[in-house]
From TrEMBL:
Residues 327-345 have a biased composition (Polar residues). Residues 431-517 form the PDZ domain. It holds the Pfam family PDZ_2. This is PDZ domain-containing protein. Residues 44-53 have a biased composition (Pro residues). Residues 29-43, 54-72 have a biased composition (Low complexity). Residues 1-74, 327-359 are annotated as: Disordered. InterPro entries: Chloro_Bact_Ser_Proteases (IPR051201), PDZ (IPR001478), PDZ_sf (IPR036034), Peptidase_S1_PA (IPR009003), Peptidase_S1_PA_chymotrypsin (IPR043504), Peptidase_S1C (IPR001940). SUPFAM superfamilies: PDZ domain-like, Trypsin-like serine proteases. The lineage of its organism: Bacteria, Bacillati, Actinomycetota, Actinomycetes, Micrococcales. Belongs to the peptidase S1C family. The keyword NAD does not apply. Residues 1-10 have a biased composition (Basic and acidic residues). Signal peptide: none annotated.
């Protein structure tokens, strides 16, 4: 929806006995009412009042007609200043951190409190029913809009993610109206329905330490307050193990939260809200059933703007990326080569407001879903859902066209990444149960086959096997090239490492490899990665 969309103008002149209802555009000057057309063509009388507009004047076009479905502008509307873009110099105006919802749009919105029946009337709001065909999504009278979080980070200079919404003093979450905004109840699309279902299950997280701070997103796992997010959100990318965490839910409540456990290997974490109840858990989908081209909806708090909704598709599956991470654990499973030119990855965490990438040589390798739904700094830990509003991924990283970012971050370029929900669910369940998660260990050093002289296929080249390890036990040898792991294609060392880490310690896996000119398959019982 564009910022200047309002109600559709009436298609015919109102009846003389019915008072005209002006369009609800608070920022623009109301259009002058058209002359009333007499019911009988034979009546030539013209009202004597001077302000009356002659019929001929009413019919004479003064400007090109607006396209169907849009109002004819009379004077330039005074829209609120734009939020800006990531990478834009200068700061957003502070007023927009918790701006009254609807203020930047033309028509007054019909709003209904969260949980209210879809048929609940909106007191004092006149709704103009446009003659448009309703979508199959049903009449959803709700799009939840929570206030953005404005955090403070003492000692942090410069602009964060291109803008700076932080005050010099310690900040605190700000709650605002939580309603569903539908300007035309007769034309609600599927995305609106998905948003109405999922937004109550997504929270905004503010983490602060004595020297830094930032915002991110999270997904509600249980009604009593277990929240799934990213490790880099709650540890400020490994900068602290005891950050102060505050969480704002979609209904405007603010909670303190404690870290239940982190999993830096897959950049996942679980936190628990203090004294929370009645939350709306997200519904998990099956990420293994996804197809390229499936619809995706990303929901989170980019730049602290809570409950932001973007749409796209699944751009690629079975993708693996390597990301620099200061929280990366020491690995006892060697991986040689990182699959990126000159050792620099174009991927990085979508750090939230106030966070800047930490310079580090450590990295993690994770399997991801690639989507073109806009994911921006602050979306980390938020939800990626399918067309049924079921969780298929936890948003984690974005790509940068300019390579690894050092001085700041750019926004979405249409290449975002989410951790598949199947992996996220296993890891979060283990953290809630045991305080930590386990990961598989192959017991082999690998490198990308394309980098090995003499190879003619892609895959993960086994450079060395660990004596007594899972790979050796399964019969794998130096020089074998792994081409698939549990049915997932392996094109380089990053793919194999990411898939092995996605599996639980002690789990069984099927490995397809090439030895010489023969393709073979073997069963492997994975060891356990020590962290």
């Amino acid at each position: 929806m564009s910022d200047n969309q309002g109600d559709r103008p009436a298609d015919q002149t109102p009846d003389a006995s019915t008072p005209g209802t002006p369009e609800s555009h608070p920022e623009s000057t109301p259009a002058a009412p058209a002359a009333v057309t007499p019911a009988a063509p034979a009546a030539p009388a013209v009202p004597p009042a001077p302000p009356t507009v002659p019929a001929a004047a009413a019919q004479a076009p003064q400007q090109p007609a607006a396209p169907a479905g849009y109002p004819v502008p009379q004077t330039p509307p005074t829209y609120a200043p734009p939020y800006g873009y990531v990478g834009q110099p200068g700061a957003y105006p502070q007023a927009y951190a918790g701006q009254h919802q609807g203020a930047a749009f033309g028509a007054a919105a019909q709003t209904v409190p969260v949980g209210a029946p879809a048929s609940a009337p909106a007191t004092g709001v006149t709704t103009t029913k446009a003659p448009r065909k309703s979508s199959g999504a049903g009449k959803v009278v709700g799009l939840i809009v929570a206030a953005a979080i404005v955090g403070g980070a003492a000692g942090l200079g410069g602009a964060y993610a291109g803008v700076n919404l932080f005050s010099p003093e310690g900040g605190s979450p700000a709650a605002g109206p939580t309603t569903v905004t539908v300007n035309d109840t007769g034309s609600v699309n599927q995305t609106t329905a998905i948003a109405a279902k999922v937004v109550p299950s997504v929270v905004t997280i503010e983490a602060t330490s004595s020297s830094s701070g930032g915002t991110g997103s999270g997904v509600v796992l249980t009604s009593d307050g277990y929240i799934l997010t990213n490790t880099h959100v709650v540890t400020l990318d490994g900068a602290t193990a005891d950050a102060t965490i505050r969480v704002t839910t979609a209904d405007g409540h603010v909670y303190d939260a404690k870290v239940v456990g982190t999993d830096p290997t897959y950049d996942l974490a679980v936190i628990k809200l203090v004294d929370a109840s009645g939350l709306t858990p997200v519904e998990f989908g099956d990420s293994s059933k996804l197809n390229v081209g499936d619809e995706t909806v990303a929901i989170g708090a980019p730049l602290g703007l809570s409950s932001s909704v973007t749409t796209g598709i699944v751009s690629a599956l079975n993708r693996s990326i390597e990301i620099a991470s200061s929280a990366a654990p020491n690995s006892s499973d060697g991986t040689q080569g990182n699959g990126q030119p000159n050792g620099q990855s174009p991927f990085y965490f979508d750090f939230g407001q106030g966070q800047t990438p930490t310079q580090t040589s450590d990295s993690i390798k994770i399997a991801v879903i690639q989507t073109d739904a806009a994911i921006n700094p602050g979306n980390s830990g938020g939800a990626l859902v399918n067309s049924d509003g079921k969780l298929i991924g936890i948003n984690v990283a974005i790509a940068s066209a300019g390579g690894s970012s050092s001085g700041g971050q750019s926004g979405s370029i249409g290449v975002g990444f989410s951790i598949p929900s199947d992996i996220a669910k296993r890891v979060s369940d283990e953290i809630i149960k045991d305080g930590k998660a386990t990961h598989g260990l192959l017991g082999a050093s690998v490198q990308s086959a394309a980098d090995v002289k003499g190879t003619t296929i892609t895959g993960a080249y086994i450079a060395e096997v660990v004596s007594g390890g899972a790979a050796e036990t399964a019969g794998l040898k130096k020089g074998d090239i792994v081409t698939a792991f549990n049915g997932v294609p392996i094109t380089d060392s990053v793919d194999l490492t990411a898939q092995v880490r996605a599996a639980a310690a002690g789990s069984d896996a099927k490995v397809t490899y090439v030895r010489g000119d023969k393709t073979q398959t073997t069963d492997v019982k994975l060891g356990e990665l020590t962290q």
